[in-house]
Amino acid sequence: MADSFGDQDLSGLPLEALIGCHECDLLMRKPVLNDGERAQCPRCGYELFIHRPHVIKRSLALAFTALLLYVPANFLPIMQLNLLGQSSQDTVWSAVVGLYYSGMQGIAVVVFLSSMAIPLLKLLCQLWVLLSIRLDWGRSYGLFLYRIYHHMREWGMLEVYLMGILVSMVKLMGLADLSLGVGLFCFIALLLVQVWLEVTMSPHQIWEALSGEDAHASH
């Protein structure tokens, strides 16, 4: 663990050799870390960054897994409802379509963007960024898309949609026969994989790799 930087004269050092704490604004020399080590601010203890081994390979595997889960999570039945002899199967896409044709076009657009469109765009941006580092091609586009990805992070709200599904299922249990569909498990798996991917893609290492500072990031 690199957690002590000492009092050093930082004048004359290039900006690339410095790092600032996001919590207490302490300016210090950027430490060089080995795999698995993490840097902490010596003043407030805030974790500045962590150097994860094989971050690009692991992130690519998670990104491809999330893309494979995206289609079944959104288009396979989440639950099957049996009420008074009538059966219906609901998917994320059918919920968007149902809201639209029920006169709630605004809500339908919000649900579509937050649960389908923006999560997919985030995944595609992450995949392009990782491939640009791995293949050493198009890193300028990767930088641009990584900035876009950070702006979209606040809009992908799969966990909010999942909570809405769970609440509706609890309320419907006492009114009808309810059975879970494959789509619900794929949706939960997609959410977990996306969270894992965001944790694995260390921003510090990704920015360094995109700017060419980390020559070993693609290995």
Please sum up the structure shown.
With 219 residues, the chain is an alpha+beta fold.
Task: Considering the chains and any ligands shown, give keywords for the structure.
single chain, 219 residues, alpha+beta, three-stranded antiparallel β-sheet, two-stranded antiparallel sheet, 7 strands, disordered N terminus
Element layout with pairings:
Layout: E1 18-20, E2 27-29, E3 38-40, E4 47-50, H1 55-75, E5 79-83, E6 86-90, H2 92-101, H3 105-134, H4 139-152, H5 158-172, E7 177-180, H6 182-200, H7 203-211
Antiparallel strand pairs: 1-2, 3-4, 5-6, 5-7
Helix pairs in contact: 1-3, 1-6, 2-3, 3-4
Question: Can you tell me about this structure?
Answer:
The chain is of the alpha+beta class and 219 residues long. Helix content is 54%, strand content 12%. It has 7 helices and 7 strands; from the N terminus they run ββββαββααααβαα. The strands form 3 sheets. A 3-stranded antiparallel sheet has the order 6-5-7. A hairpin with a 6-residue loop joins strand 3 and strand 4. Helix 2 packs antiparallel against helix 3 and helix 3 (105-134) packs antiparallel against helix 4. The radius of gyration is 22 Å and the shape is elongated. The two termini are 23 Å apart. The model is unreliable at 1-7 (pLDDT under 50).
